[in-house]
Structures are given as C-alpha cells and as structure tokens.
Amino acid sequence: VLNGDYSVARRRAIEDAAGDLGYTEWFLSKDHLIVGDTVRSRKALNSCRAGNMEIPEGVIVGQDQNGSALVRVHGIHDPVRVHMLRLERVSHGLASGDCVRLKEEVMDKEKTKHSPVGILHSIDRDGSVTVGFIGMETLWKGNSSHLQMAEAYSVGQFVRPKPGILSLRFQWARRRDGEWATGRILRVYPNGSLLVKFPGLLMFGAEEDTFVADPSEVELVSFHNSPGIVKKYRHLEDFHWVVRPAMIALSLFATIKFGSFVLGRSKRRPPHGKESQTEAQSQQRPVIEAVVEAANGPGWLPRQLRF
C-alpha cells in the first residue's frame, strides 16, 4: 500500500511539475539526484535564462520518501524542502538547459561550420557533456572544460543581428530604411536556434512573419541598452506596427489643436489701434490726476478735462 501511495504521489508531482515548467514527464523523471549534489531550481522550458529561483544554488543534505529533498542554501539557517522534480543538478558550474559556447580553440581544431552556441542537454558528474548545436545532426559530445557560458535568451525578449555581420546563417527581415529589423523571440529550440517574429513590421500576403536565428549572430535589444531618445522610440515601434501610424495621428491631432488655440487667442485680442489708444490714456491719467491734486481741486481745469 505504501509503495502504491508513493507511486501515485510521484506521478502527481511529475504531472504538476510538467504543467508548470513545460517539460515532458519523461524528461523530469529521468534525472536522479543524490545527497551531496549541487542543485538549483529548474528553469522553465524555452528559456536559457534563470528567473526568480527559489533555490539559486544549494547542496542536497537529505531526502524523504515523498520525493522531496532537503537543500542547504547559503544564507538560510534551516534546509529548504523542495520536490526533486523542481531541481536540476549543477556540475562543474553547468546544468542541463544552459546556453553554452564552444571555446575558440576547440572550434578551430574541429574546423566545422556549426554554430558555436548551443544548448547543454546533459552533463554527468565527471564532466561529460552532450550539446545541441545548429548545423549538427547529432548531439556534440565532449567535456565541460571545452565549454563556457553564453548569452542567455528567453521567450519575449527582442533581438537583432550584431553590428558588422553582413551575411547571416538564416534569412532576416529588414526595415523600410534597409537596416536589420528587431524581432521578438517566440521559442528557443533544443539546438539553441531562436524562432523570431517581427510585430513591428506589417507583412502583406504570403510574406514570412517568422524567422529562425543563430544565437551567436544576434544581440539583445531593450530600452536600457538603446542610447538616446531616437533609439528608444525606434525600439517602441518594434512592439507593434501600429505604433508608428498612431504616433503620426497623435502628432497631427496635437498640431491641429495647437493651431486652433493660437487662432482663437488672436481673434479675442482687440485691434491694434484701440489697444494703443487705451494704453496711452491709461498712461496719461496718473499725470493729470497729479496736476489736479497739486491745484487742490479740478475747478480751474477746462470742462472736458474734468473727472
């Protein structure tokens, strides 16, 4: 009965973790953690970037029959209880799912045309690794010493080709001015390639609206790394093609309203001659009043100058 209850509980835990993280149940059930392993919270599928992890890094110090592990985390006094399906093992500073780059000396030795950036599929405790690279039909096998961490991308981020790259591995959309367009990542494939969509471009007919990108050829685009107000506005246009016509319409509306305001004020102002005459009379009045007071009364003044 206990074994049956454990199987049901483990099955339910696998289904919950698979639904939350996006992995298959087979993938989650094949990794076996033991006491002494360095672990961290498992990243979500289609993402090389670690989010807000409950366990940034810790060491398993105990396990229970329910499939949970007690993890010792630096800075926390008591071990943290986490289900092992939500943890991934870290060996030699790397974990399955990391974005990695093959070192230059290894690339030069292999003399291959595959991308230097890929996804780490597995890493054993002895440092043996398998990596998926664009341009290879099978997983690359080697040692963790041949790899280094690469720029991590995740779904929802914006990317564009790096400056200076004239020829890309795959096709890429361009803006109206001929420059490379900025696209949004829809998916990260197991070999590291990125599926990119261009919401800032209005596509017609049978035009392709999604493209595949080599992660080694692109760079991240955000408001933070876009210098100047012009670059930031251009990045705003990358979110949707309707931004540009909306801004043009808003500018025209503001211009019309401002013109109406100026025209209305000019109509309410008095004619130039009357305004000058009124100002002259207002300037002469204090002088006349002073003369009247000096004469101690207005009796000596002509009738037309009396007040």
Automatic annotation (TrEMBL):
It comes from the Eukaryota. InterPro entries: OCM_Kinase. The lineage of its organism: Eukaryota, Viridiplantae, Streptophyta, Embryophyta, Tracheophyta. It comes from Punica granatum (Pomegranate). The chain crosses the membrane at residues 241-264. Keywords: Membrane, Transmembrane, Transmembrane helix. This is RING-type E3 ubiquitin transferase.
